[in-house]
Amino acid sequence: MRLTVRVRPGSSRARVGGRWGQEGQVLLVAVGERAVDGAATTAACRAVAEAFGLRPRQVTLVSGARSRTKVLEVAVDDAEGRARLAALLAG
């Protein structure tokens, strides 16, 4: 399942949940790491994996390595993934 996320680096605590953007289908991911040398991207992938109950290697970056908006590939069943995503988007 492909998932679009908006990363907020330098947050006081890591958090996955909430909506971003006009359409509200972009998942917010706050991480404590700064956006230096891919640290925030790695932390965001790790946080999404934890939120979905997966291992970190089951979440991979598809696009957006140097952007705050990223597309991730999450190795989860589509029905289960959609249910988990809906819960995370709800906040």
The largest sheet has its strands arranged as: 2-3-1-5-4
CATH class: Alpha Beta
Assess the beta-strand content as a share of residues.
25-35%
Query: What structural class results from the helix and strand content?
Result: alpha+beta
Roughly how many Å apart are the termini? Answer: 20 Å
**CATH fold-level name:** Conserved Hypothetical Protein Mth637, Chain: A
When the domains are counted, the total is 1
DSSP summary, beta strand count: 5
Shape: globular
Unreliable segments of 5+ consecutive residues: none
| Share of helix, binned | 25-40%
Largest sheet: 5 strands, mixed
Overall description:
With 91 residues, the protein is α+β, with helices and mostly antiparallel strands. It has one domain (2-90): Conserved Hypothetical Protein Mth637, Chain: A (2-Layer Sandwich). The chain contains two helices and five strands, in the order E-E-E-H-E-E-H. The chain has helices at 39-51, 78-90; strands at residues 2-8, 15-20, 26-30, 59-63, 69-74. A five-stranded mixed β-sheet has the order 2-3-1-5-4, with helices on one face. The longest helix is centred in the middle third of the chain and has 13 residues, at 39-51.
